[in-house]
């Protein structure tokens, strides 16, 4: 990644922070805007932020996301719309902003961070599952469109990762039960997810595109 510039959303904690650190280790210049620098729920703010960048983006990682817990009888329009805005529409806007430049230069890597909950179901994850499933579709659509111009687009769907958000959305008892369902017998570490994203976002990946790679320790195949 030496000499490349990477834009990573949600880079202040969890998977995003691990990605930003790994990219930096590999020689990339990493831009990781904070929430105060760009409000991903605001389309105009997203477009304004990208327009203000002073260098072209070679690698985009759409990692930031929110997961309002609610079933169909609890979910408000506001929560649903915000989840779609942050988890799906913001990645689309960022792709739309940087992909043409990548294509013009003949090189680009886009990695969208999806979720195992786009592959299998879980109660009270309705908005998140809809948004992440849409992100998978966006990944495939862009991959077909951009591959002839040197831009590879993939998604990584992490399983249960040891992050603050995971602990926030699950009780200790729920986490213990989830671990019992993972064939490798533990939660994923953020560095493991970051390593996969780093491969897909680097020049080492020269042929993988349009894929949703599930990284869940075997959780989804049981």
Mean pLDDT: 96
- The proportion of strand residues reads 5-15%
First CA to last CA: what distance? 36 Å
Could you give me the name of the CATH homologous superfamily?
NAD(P)-binding Rossmann-like Domain
Order of helices and strands: EHEHEHEHEHHHE
**Structural domains: how many:** 1
Strand order of the largest sheet: 2-1-3-4-5-6
Question: How many whole angstroms does the radius of gyration measure?
Answer: 17 Å
Would you state the CATH class?
Answer: Alpha Beta
Number of helices, counting only DSSP H or I runs of 4 residues or more:
7
CATH architecture: 3-Layer(aba) Sandwich
Percent helix, as a range, is 40-55%
Low-pLDDT parts are none
Oligomer: single chain
Instruction: Give the overall form.
Output: globular
Characterization of the model:
There is one protein chain. The protein has 222 residues and is α/β, with parallel strands linked by helices. It has a single domain, classed as Rossmann fold. The chain has 7 helices and 6 strands, in the order E-H-E-H-E-H-E-H-E-H-H-H-E. The chain has a 6-stranded parallel beta sheet, sandwiched between helices. Strand 1, helix 1 and strand 2 form a beta-alpha-beta unit. The model has no long low-confidence stretch (mean pLDDT 96).
